[in-house]
Amino acid sequence: MPESPGPERTATLRPARGGDLDAINRLVAEAIEDWPLPERVRRLALPAYRYTEADRMFLEVIVLERESQVVGVAAWEAAGSGELPEGAADGFLLHGLYVGRSARGQGVGRQLVAACRQSAHEAGVAGVLVKAQASAAGFFEALGFVPVPVRDRDRDYEQRYWWPAKGAPAAA
Prior knowledge:
By secondary structure, the chain is an alpha+beta fold. It has a single domain, classed as Gcn5-related N-acetyltransferase (GNAT) (Aminopeptidase, 3-Layer(aba) Sandwich), CATH 3.40.630. The protein contains five helices and eight strands; from the N terminus they run E-E-H-H-H-E-E-E-H-E-H-E-E. Strands 1-2-3-4-5-6-8-7 form an eight-stranded mixed beta sheet. Strand 5, helix 4 (about 110-125) and strand 6 (about 125-130) form a beta-alpha-beta unit. The radius of gyration is 16 Å and the shape is globular.
Protein backbone atom coordinates (compact mmCIF):
# COMPACT_ATOMS: atom_id res chain seq x y z
CA MET A 1 0.00 0.00 0.00
CA PRO A 2 1.26 3.54 -0.68
CA GLU A 3 2.92 5.74 1.88
CA SER A 4 0.85 8.63 3.18
CA PRO A 5 2.29 11.80 4.67
CA GLY A 6 1.49 12.54 8.30
CA PRO A 7 1.52 15.98 9.86
CA GLU A 8 5.14 15.60 11.00
CA ARG A 9 6.34 12.21 9.79
CA THR A 10 5.72 9.55 7.17
CA ALA A 11 2.97 6.99 7.65
CA THR A 12 2.64 3.67 5.87
CA LEU A 13 -0.56 1.72 5.28
CA ARG A 14 0.04 -2.01 5.01
CA PRO A 15 -1.68 -5.34 5.59
CA ALA A 16 -1.49 -6.48 9.22
CA ARG A 17 0.94 -9.25 10.09
CA GLY A 18 0.76 -11.75 12.92
CA GLY A 19 3.40 -9.80 14.83
CA ASP A 20 1.06 -6.77 14.87
CA LEU A 21 -1.61 -8.42 17.03
CA ASP A 22 -0.30 -7.09 20.36
CA ALA A 23 -0.14 -3.52 19.02
CA ILE A 24 -3.57 -3.87 17.40
CA ASN A 25 -5.13 -5.14 20.62
CA ARG A 26 -3.52 -2.30 22.60
CA LEU A 27 -5.30 0.16 20.26
CA VAL A 28 -8.58 -1.74 20.73
CA ALA A 29 -8.19 -1.58 24.52
CA GLU A 30 -7.44 2.17 24.38
CA ALA A 31 -10.56 2.77 22.31
CA ILE A 32 -12.81 0.74 24.59
CA GLU A 33 -11.43 2.59 27.63
CA ASP A 34 -12.73 5.81 26.05
CA TRP A 35 -16.24 4.52 25.29
CA PRO A 36 -18.92 6.00 27.54
CA LEU A 37 -19.77 2.71 29.26
CA PRO A 38 -19.82 1.51 32.85
CA GLU A 39 -16.48 -0.04 33.86
CA ARG A 40 -17.94 -3.53 34.21
CA VAL A 41 -19.42 -3.41 30.69
CA ARG A 42 -16.08 -2.20 29.27
CA ARG A 43 -14.24 -5.03 31.04
CA LEU A 44 -16.68 -7.65 29.74
CA ALA A 45 -16.67 -6.20 26.20
CA LEU A 46 -12.91 -6.09 25.71
CA PRO A 47 -12.31 -9.82 25.05
CA ALA A 48 -14.97 -9.80 22.32
CA TYR A 49 -13.25 -6.95 20.48
CA ARG A 50 -9.69 -8.30 20.60
CA TYR A 51 -8.31 -9.67 17.33
CA THR A 52 -6.69 -13.08 16.95
CA GLU A 53 -4.63 -14.76 14.26
CA ALA A 54 -7.82 -16.52 13.13
CA ASP A 55 -9.46 -13.14 12.47
CA ARG A 56 -6.79 -12.38 9.88
CA MET A 57 -8.05 -15.39 7.88
CA PHE A 58 -11.57 -13.94 7.62
CA LEU A 59 -11.04 -10.19 7.78
CA GLU A 60 -9.05 -7.76 5.70
CA VAL A 61 -6.93 -6.06 8.36
CA ILE A 62 -4.67 -3.11 7.64
CA VAL A 63 -2.53 -0.99 9.91
CA LEU A 64 -1.15 2.50 9.66
CA GLU A 65 2.39 2.61 10.92
CA ARG A 66 4.54 5.61 11.87
CA GLU A 67 8.17 5.22 12.83
CA SER A 68 7.69 1.43 13.08
CA GLN A 69 4.76 1.86 15.51
CA VAL A 70 1.21 0.78 14.71
CA VAL A 71 -0.96 3.86 15.38
CA GLY A 72 -4.17 2.76 13.65
CA VAL A 73 -5.98 -0.33 12.44
CA ALA A 74 -9.01 -1.04 10.27
CA ALA A 75 -10.67 -4.39 9.61
CA TRP A 76 -13.47 -5.26 7.23
CA GLU A 77 -15.27 -8.23 5.74
CA ALA A 78 -18.17 -8.95 3.41
CA ALA A 79 -21.39 -7.66 4.97
CA GLY A 80 -24.26 -10.05 5.51
CA SER A 81 -27.20 -9.42 3.21
CA GLY A 82 -29.52 -8.74 6.18
CA GLU A 83 -27.23 -5.92 7.35
CA LEU A 84 -27.09 -4.01 4.07
CA PRO A 85 -29.28 -1.00 3.35
CA GLU A 86 -32.30 -1.55 1.15
CA GLY A 87 -31.34 -1.91 -2.50
CA ALA A 88 -27.68 -2.81 -1.88
CA ALA A 89 -26.75 -6.22 -3.29
CA ASP A 90 -23.39 -6.48 -1.53
CA GLY A 91 -20.88 -4.49 0.45
CA PHE A 92 -18.18 -4.49 3.05
CA LEU A 93 -18.76 -4.19 6.78
CA LEU A 94 -16.11 -2.00 8.39
CA HIS A 95 -15.72 -4.27 11.40
CA GLY A 96 -13.33 -2.11 13.37
CA LEU A 97 -11.54 1.23 13.18
CA TYR A 98 -9.14 2.07 16.00
CA VAL A 99 -6.66 4.92 16.34
CA GLY A 100 -4.17 5.28 19.20
CA ARG A 101 -4.71 8.28 21.48
CA SER A 102 -1.41 9.87 20.49
CA ALA A 103 -2.40 9.78 16.79
CA ARG A 104 -6.01 10.99 17.06
CA GLY A 105 -6.94 14.13 15.18
CA GLN A 106 -4.11 13.63 12.68
CA GLY A 107 -5.99 12.04 9.78
CA VAL A 108 -5.17 8.42 10.67
CA GLY A 109 -8.84 7.38 10.78
CA ARG A 110 -9.49 9.13 7.47
CA GLN A 111 -6.59 7.27 5.82
CA LEU A 112 -7.82 3.93 7.14
CA VAL A 113 -11.39 4.58 5.97
CA ALA A 114 -10.06 5.68 2.56
CA ALA A 115 -8.18 2.36 2.28
CA CYS A 116 -11.38 0.43 3.06
CA ARG A 117 -13.34 2.47 0.53
CA GLN A 118 -10.64 1.94 -2.10
CA SER A 119 -10.79 -1.80 -1.46
CA ALA A 120 -14.59 -1.73 -1.86
CA HIS A 121 -14.27 0.21 -5.09
CA GLU A 122 -11.68 -2.26 -6.43
CA ALA A 123 -13.82 -5.25 -5.40
CA GLY A 124 -16.81 -3.76 -7.21
CA VAL A 125 -19.13 -3.99 -4.20
CA ALA A 126 -21.98 -1.55 -3.71
CA GLY A 127 -20.49 0.17 -0.68
CA VAL A 128 -19.22 0.13 2.88
CA LEU A 129 -21.39 -0.28 5.96
CA VAL A 130 -20.25 0.70 9.43
CA LYS A 131 -21.90 0.11 12.78
CA ALA A 132 -20.55 3.08 14.70
CA GLN A 133 -20.42 4.12 18.29
CA ALA A 134 -22.74 7.12 18.75
CA SER A 135 -19.70 9.30 19.46
CA ALA A 136 -18.27 8.45 15.99
CA ALA A 137 -21.38 9.38 14.00
CA GLY A 138 -20.09 12.84 13.06
CA PHE A 139 -16.77 11.40 11.88
CA PHE A 140 -18.46 9.01 9.45
CA GLU A 141 -20.96 11.60 8.26
CA ALA A 142 -18.08 14.02 7.54
CA LEU A 143 -16.58 11.30 5.31
CA GLY A 144 -19.76 11.01 3.25
CA PHE A 145 -21.40 8.08 5.02
CA VAL A 146 -25.17 8.41 5.31
CA PRO A 147 -27.36 7.04 8.10
CA VAL A 148 -29.14 3.77 7.33
CA PRO A 149 -32.75 3.77 8.51
CA VAL A 150 -33.62 1.29 11.24
CA ARG A 151 -36.14 -1.18 9.80
CA ASP A 152 -36.36 -3.54 12.77
CA ARG A 153 -35.59 -2.09 16.20
CA ASP A 154 -35.07 -5.59 17.64
CA ARG A 155 -32.53 -6.61 15.00
CA ASP A 156 -30.86 -3.54 13.48
CA TYR A 157 -27.95 -1.79 15.10
CA GLU A 158 -29.11 1.79 15.53
CA GLN A 159 -25.96 3.67 14.45
CA ARG A 160 -25.42 2.25 10.95
CA TYR A 161 -23.87 4.31 8.17
CA TRP A 162 -23.41 3.55 4.47
CA TRP A 163 -20.99 4.81 1.86
CA PRO A 164 -22.02 3.93 -1.71
CA ALA A 165 -18.93 2.80 -3.64
CA LYS A 166 -20.30 2.45 -7.13
CA GLY A 167 -19.75 5.61 -9.09
CA ALA A 168 -18.17 7.38 -6.11
CA PRO A 169 -14.52 8.32 -5.70
CA ALA A 170 -12.77 6.17 -3.10
CA ALA A 171 -10.58 8.92 -1.62
CA ALA A 172 -11.52 10.43 1.75
